[in-house]
Amino acid sequence: MMKKLSETTIRIVTAAVIAPFVILCFVNYFSFIGLVSSVVLFASYEYLKFSLKSTNHDVVRVVISGIIPAIIVVYGILLYRSSFMSFQRPELIFAVGVISLSSIVIMTVSDVKGAKEIIVNSVFSLVYVGFNLAFFYHIYLRFGSSMALLALTSVWLFDTGAYFSGKRFGKIRISPSYSPKKSLEGVIGGYITTILFIIAFIYISGLLGLYNGPELGLFQIAILAMVVSIFGTIGDIVESSFKRYHGVKDSGNLLPGHGGMLDRIDGVLFVTPMFYIFLTLLT
């Protein structure tokens, strides 16, 4: 009889399979666009699916509403880089998206209460997922692909460090109402892991001739690691509050051992814009 794999083993195997593919997407700008857009699509769909489960809607309407943020991000990126249009106001894309999304819903949904729920939650997903992740390509364009990749992978390492530190030493609970397992010891362990990872990332990628980001001193690295630790934790707790409100354990089951896409990027959603802000301030 085959022994059942532990959740930790499943998490590690999934990460080992997915991580190389994700990292390779940062090599080319257009594969990077495809990655961010795909993540927005899946995460938006998951958020809408569990937040609208009590309304009178079907999966098709959720898919339609979830696709809109992904389309907007794609066009936002393409227009931002486009040479045939001097159009550098991505917020207008989001405004058009809100109008388009609302128009689609009122034309396809006859239930008034259901339509309102779909519009409100879809617009929120547009900001919560699409707008926050849009800062990835601002980091990519202004600070280089290395910094965009670092913004993502530093959250991965923070989560890993926090998970194992919390599991081993966690006693002081920082959010008993929303995320009972999250501990101060875990956050501290994650912070130390993140500092060490950023130093190793810059050093190794520099040796390989792959680093194209700004020079960062130890103080700047410590601040960026703090940004990742604080806002990664807040992002995680915020998503946990949504799931508890709607009575779901995971946002989905797309990633074995990790739950859904939204579960995997909850911290990234808050870290990405703050990473961009602090990079701007520190460099």
Automatic annotation (TrEMBL):
Topology with respect to the bilayer: Multi-pass membrane protein
Metabolic or biological pathway: Phospholipid metabolism; CDP-diacylglycerol biosynthesis; CDP-diacylglycerol from sn-glycerol 3-phosphate: step 3/3; Lipid metabolism
GO aspect biological process, one term: CDP-diacylglycerol biosynthetic process
Cellular component, GO annotation: plasma membrane
E.C. designation(s): 2.7.7.41
Keywords, comma-separated and alphabetical: Cell membrane, Lipid biosynthesis, Lipid metabolism, Membrane, Nucleotidyltransferase, Phospholipid biosynthesis, Phospholipid metabolism, Transferase, Transmembrane, Transmembrane helix
Localisation per UniProt entry: Cell membrane
Residues passing through the membrane, by range: 12-42, 62-80, 92-112, 118-140, 147-166, 186-211, 218-238, 265-282
Reaction catalysed by this enzyme: a 1,2-diacyl-sn-glycero-3-phosphate + CTP + H(+) = a CDP-1,2-diacyl-sn-glycerol + diphosphate
Stored InterPro entries: PC_trans
Statement: the UniProt record of this protein carries the keyword Nucleotide-binding: no
Entry GO MF terms: phosphatidate cytidylyltransferase activity
Keyword Acyltransferase: no
Enzyme class: transferase
Family membership: Belongs to the CDS family.
Identification of the protein by name: Phosphatidate cytidylyltransferase
Organism: Mesotoga infera
Species lineage: Bacteria, Thermotogati, Thermotogota, Thermotogae, Kosmotogales
